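From: lab user (bench 3)
To: helpdesk
Subject: output format question, protein + zinc ion

Hello, I'm new to running complex predictions and I'm not sure whether the block I got back is the full result or only part of it. Here's what I submitted:
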Amino acid sequence: MPLPIGHALAGLACAQVRPGFFFRNRWQDVFFFVFLANLPDADFLPGIILGHPNLYHHGIFHSVGAALAIAAAGGWFFYLKKQPFWSRAVAIFMVFSSHLLLDFFSWDFGAPFGIPLLWPFVNRYFIAARPIFINVIRSGRSDDFFISLFNRHNLAAAGREIMIMGGVLVAVVTVRCLLKKKRSLK
Ligand SMILES: [Zn+2]
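Helpdesk reply: Thanks, we reran it on our side. This is the complete output you should expect:
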């Protein structure tokens, strides 16, 4: 799994595709994209409460089934706010799935390796043959879980995430600016 920084940059890149897509307030909109891109890692929370953060991590909340459920719930939420259901649900599905994609392309040295990507349609774990993101070293206990994230290995992981996902973000912003310029020239 990449760190929240890698997922946040993925969320920011998605937010730059259509700024103001969910909320008129720019910061609220960006925050929602970043929240969605990190949401699957909320599966740490029940484990943290029970004293073992990794207990439910990389379970079914890291799957296309969870992405569909969250997309349906989110689409319904925006529909109640007088916004179109399908476009909002599809966008939520895509941003949530960006998390699954990044986790799929990460090293994982703890069984079961990878994520149950296609649950409930296929009941097995998937991981890329050539992962590009470094694994995150963390404690299996709640009391030192957060402090354990601050180490040299994870700093290198964060550096790689910033390089790759920062590059994606810059590319999205550049393309958007070029398209805007092209449209204003017409
Ligand atoms: Zn994750």
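A quick orientation on your result: Residues 152-185 form the longest helix (34 residues). Let us know if anything else is unclear.
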